[in-house]
Amino acid sequence: MITGRAAADGSPTQFKVFDTDVHHGPWRTESLFPYLSEVHADRLEHYGFGGGGVSWAYNGGSQGYRTDIITDRGKKNYPGVVVPDPEVCRKELLDEAGVDIALLVGGGGEGIATAGPDVAYTNALLRAFNDYSVAEWLTVDDRFRLAIAVNPQDPQNAADEIDRLGGHDQVISIILPCGSQRPYGHPFYKPLHEACVRNNLAITLHFGAEGSGVNPQPSAAGYPTSYVQSRLLRPAFYKPHLASFVFDGVFEEFPTLKVGMIETGIAWAPSFLWLMDQNWKALRPQVPWVKRPPSEYVRENVKFCSQPLDDPEPKDGMAKTLEWLDGEHTVMFSSDYPHFDWDEPQETFKTMPDEFRRRLLWDNAAELYGVA
Amino acid sequence: MTGAAEVRRHHVGPTSEIVAGAPKLVSVDGHEVGVFRVGEQFLAWRNVCPHHAAPVCRGTVAGTNLPSKVHEYLPGRDGEILQCPWHGWEFDLLTGEHLAAGSRARLRRYPVEVIDEQVYLTLPANRA
Predict the structure, then answer these.
(1) Across the interface, do A288 and B73 touch by the CB < 8 Å criterion?
(2) What's the rounded Cα separation, in Å, for the pair A265 and A179?
């Protein structure tokens, strides 16, 4: 049996764990200054990230963090809920929770910046965030992997950034927020698709920046009034991107391109695959380049993430969901560390058979991200 | 025992009556059947869509867009495709197959014979 690294008490964990959703970033924006020009550092200090956030006023836990890990580090001015210290992350997540590979996806100011109207400024901020991540995180532990932040508003710049960093051993993906001006299969993004394929990087999608800055409203019904409602919108954040990747023919054109959808939960996904197949069966001649049932492309090119794991009322609900989704091949584990609603890896899928857990905790993510 | 000679023939009409794109509907053993002309071939399909039981033969005879490169269209097979009037599933008039890779749905076929410019459906013999 493959075992993970030793847990904190010295006992080996039962399964290797690939955590596809770990939020990292600085505590204070000043940490990015060394990676910015003087002009941009000055602008960041005085005017912020430029994307204009939408705050629902609440998150959960304490400012979105697990209350057992937030420590007084003085005044925080970096937006978002990110663990600021690679040493803390190493100790709590890698050593104690038994995570063998942690995909760092950011999730603060750099995400907001993708909705900023000044694309050149956004490009500079994301480049700085990536340089900060490579220098101050990837060097700390070889179990860290990075999804680099790129600007979806400027696909050629995104491609250049992918080419610049795509060769780094620990860079395995790009990260895009679901909030966008166009769904990500749109031909507008072709330079970005090509660069990911060229560099063998996956595309990782995480909700964020919906309704921020230049992005459209977060739902067809406008803005929800509370954080809890915003959580309920999440499946709708991912669906148009998933449909676009399939129906705009991205996987026909780039069969090796992989897409990881993280912090999705999974119960919504089977019915969406059914819906895509059903509509394709009738309307296929309008998209004749989609040569196979949409669900087949999804099974080959896309994986979903466990957290926040759905909690169906019927006892067999989760087993049925995993069966309908072919979860053995399509679901990856994610913890969402250090957020209040994280899932502990060794507690996740505990009732499923060992072989199944092994695939969900490690194999599926290792396959998607090409990690041996 | 049923021998090959024991088939029944149901007279549909003269070939001149069945033109491309306009099937002739006939009633056989309690089922409605659409008899189509595709080029010089005559084909007959039960008028029931395997999807949701629509009168499929009352749909549109057309072509389709063949599998193509992304965001390109390649029209073809004009006159060989039947589009169901409900939901729009497409069927190959030559084989009865649903035009969707992996679909097992297909139309129910009736054998057709043309004898002296007259079109017949060939039916199994009545059971004794």
Answers:
(1) yes
(2) 18
User: Of A82-96, A148-162, A177-191, where does mean pLDDT reach its minimum?
Assistant: A82-96
The answer as to whether B3 is a domain residue is no
Q: Tell me the per-residue pLDDT of A40-60, one tens digit each, with 9 for 90 and over.
A: 999 999 999 987 766 555 678
Q: Does some domain include residue B117?
A: yes
- Among chain B residues, the shortest Cα distance to A290 is held by B67
Q: Is residue B37 part of a domain?
A: yes
Look up the CATH number of the domain holding residue B47. Answer: 2.102.10.10
Is B50 a domain residue?
yes
- A281–B89 C-beta distance less than 8 A: yes
Q: Given a cut of 50, is residue A3 above it in pLDDT? A: no
Looking at the complex, report in whole angstroms how far the Cα of residue A284 sits from the nearest Cα belonging to chain B.
Answer: 7
The 10s digit of each residue's pLDDT in A89-128 is 999 999 999 999 999 999 988 999 999 999 999 999 999 9
For A45, which DSSP code? Answer: H
Those residues whose C-beta lies under 8 Å from the C-beta of residue A337, and which sit 6 or more positions away, are A19, A21, A22, A23, A66, A83, A89, A92, A93, A97, A102
Say how many domains are in chain B. Answer: 1
Cβ-defined contact of A281 to B100 (cutoff 8 Å):
yes
Cβ of residue A280 closer than 8 Å to a chain B Cβ: yes
Residue A366: how many other CB atoms lie within 10 Å: 17
Q: Rounded to two decimals, what is the model's pTM?
A: 0.92
Range of the domain at B103: 8-123
